[in-house]
């Protein structure tokens, strides 16, 4: 779909209430099933959110409850993406440090020992 057409449709959608938006979503999914290849989201959280949303719609749950639930799932998804990004950064940093340690040349001096020197034989210790 070209950008001009997509922008035009989005402008029209923004003016509609949620219940009309769900009717349009139903129609778009109908057209997709009839004319296009079925696309599924690749994000785990998006899959769960859409499944819960569809289940709630099928159960005739009020639109406000659906909107709140989907908002909650979106927030949880953002938190999980943040945690995943932080974990990835930690793994990348650990990997970088490990690689630096393993690629250190063999002749590189190590840090000097911090233990006190041994007293000469025969001198009292203490």
Account of the 3D structure:
By secondary structure, the chain is an all-alpha fold. The protein folds into 2 domains: 1-39; 41-91. Helix content is 67%, strand content 0%. The chain is built from 4 helices and no strands. Helix 3 packs antiparallel against helix 4 (63-102). It is elongated, with a radius of gyration of 30 Å. The mean pLDDT is 80.
- Compute the number of helices: 4
For the record, give the distance between the C-alpha atoms at the N and C termini, rounded to a whole number.
Answer: 85 Å
Over the alpha carbons, how many angstroms does the gyration radius reach? 30 Å
Class from helix and strand fractions = mainly alpha
Would you list the SSEs in sequence order as H and E?
HHHH
Write down the overall mean pLDDT.
80
How many DSSP-defined strands?
A: 0
Helix proportion: 55-70%
Q: What about the largest sheet?
A: none
Low-confidence stretches: none
Tally of distinct domains: 2
Strand content: under 5%
Report the principal-axis shape.
elongated
In short:
With 126 residues, the chain is an all-alpha fold.
Describe this protein with a few key phrases.
126 residues; 2 domains
Question: Would you spell out the secondary-structure blueprint of this structure?
Answer:
Blueprint: H1 3-14, H2 18-35, H3 44-58, H4 63-102
């Amino acid at each position: 779909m070209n950008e001009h057409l997509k922008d035009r449709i989005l402008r029209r959608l923004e003016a509609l209430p949620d219940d009309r938006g769900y009717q349009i979503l139903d129609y778009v999914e109908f057209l997709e099933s009839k004319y296009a290849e079925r696309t599924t989201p690749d994000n785990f959280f998006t899959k769960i959110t859409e499944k819960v949303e569809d289940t709630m719609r099928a159960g005739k749950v009020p639109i406000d409850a659906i909107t709140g639930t989907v908002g909650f799932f979106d927030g949880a998804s953002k938190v999980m993406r943040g945690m995943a990004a932080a974990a990835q950064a930690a793994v990348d940093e650990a990997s970088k440090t490990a690689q630096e340690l393993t690629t250190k040349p063999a002749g590189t001096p190590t840090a000097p020992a911090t233990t006190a020197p041994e007293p000469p034989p025969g001198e009292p210790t203490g």
